[in-house]
Amino acid sequence: MTRRQRLETLFAQAAGYIDQQTAGVVPAIQPSTTFVRDENYDLLRDNNIYARDDNDIVRLAEKILATAENARDALVFPTGMAAIAALFRTTRAGQTIIMQSQIYWGTTKWVREYCERRAIKLIEQDTSKTDETVSLIAAEKPALVFIETPSNPWLRVTDIGAVAAATTDAGGILGVDSTAAGPAISNPLDLGAHIVMHSGTKSINGHSDVLAGVLAVDDETRPVWQDIKVDRHDAGAVIGSFEAYLLIRGMRTLPLRMERMSENAMAVAQYLQAHDEVDHVFYPGLESHEAHALAKKQMHNGFGPLLSFTVKGDKQRALDAVGKLHLFKRATSLGGVESLVEHRFTIESTTGIPETLLRLSVGIEHIEDLIADLETALS
Ligand SMILES: *Cc1c(COP(=O)(O)O)cnc(C)c1O
């Protein structure tokens, strides 16, 4: 699908949706799992047989997301991890996967176990090091390269265009977890990636009330895409009607929310960077970020809600600061309208996360209230 409208218009109008039965501007939630045939055993509605594969409201969510990503096709899954699993399950014993190191811990953990069970060679590489990564891809000829940019919680930025070109040359598929940016800020397929992935649980829904995952593809005739479609249908990782409804409802304001979150996150990053009690701020919007220039090229209308920083002192100092926050809720996840804070070391102590690192997901609250909250916590 080629995007003709700007993203604000596409999302606000749910890709021009009008309910055919009621003329409503909001899609109906159809809970039926099965669909009737007529007396000649013809389907009353073409393509509607059984809800594991056939669900109009899920198709609408997929159409909006495919259009937003300039994709040829998109599939919605019940969680982000289900989408990631469907992509990785296209690889076979004896093949090689290159995955970015130090990304979303749930991905790393699942992929490590999967590759071990399936006798797939897994190489974890810091893909923000472009030259090293390009050489590695040329040498290893991986079936799949998987990156996350910006990465969570380090906010590393990978050069999507360079890694995509190297992967294409090597005959592989590049998958990009674009959750931290989202479709209103970055469109990896436009830069040459083959498949873009999102946890729809995060900013796409944006209200912390539904789990969802997304895969979208640059060319629906790729064998890997056919495998993913068959996997979703046969293995049954489908989202329910009500969840798809919530996803669409949330998406209508996605560009607006991302704009405010990015503005707030930028202001918070600048405030933290100037603070005496703060050691280092990781945010691609800051000029001091190691890949700021690249981030500016790959991201538009802001740099997203996610940022990390280290406080001066020790683990207790970081936990004390977190304990004093009121507006930033102590909870995992990101991309919702409410601001969240996480002490990542408490969650994943074995992956090299500094004890003093705090990860923020900055919401859409008033910036002065957020900064006042941080001021109280850090002073
Ligand atoms: C949350 C998240 C996932 C997993 O998504 P779920 O919807 O929780 O399954 C994957 N990647 C990133 C970057 C995430 O933040």
Automatic annotation (TrEMBL):
It comes from the Bacteria. GO terms for cellular component: cytoplasm. One of its GO terms (biological process) is transsulfuration. The keyword Lipoprotein does not apply. Keywords: Pyridoxal phosphate. InterPro entries: Cys/Met-Metab_PyrdxlP-dep_enz, PyrdxlP-dep_Trfase, PyrdxlP-dep_Trfase_major, PyrdxlP-dep_Trfase_small. Its cofactor is pyridoxal 5'-phosphate. The modification N6-(pyridoxal phosphate)lysine is found at K202. GO terms for molecular function: carbon-sulfur lyase activity; pyridoxal phosphate binding. Belongs to the trans-sulfuration enzymes family. This is Cystathionine gamma-synthase. It comes from Maritalea myrionectae.
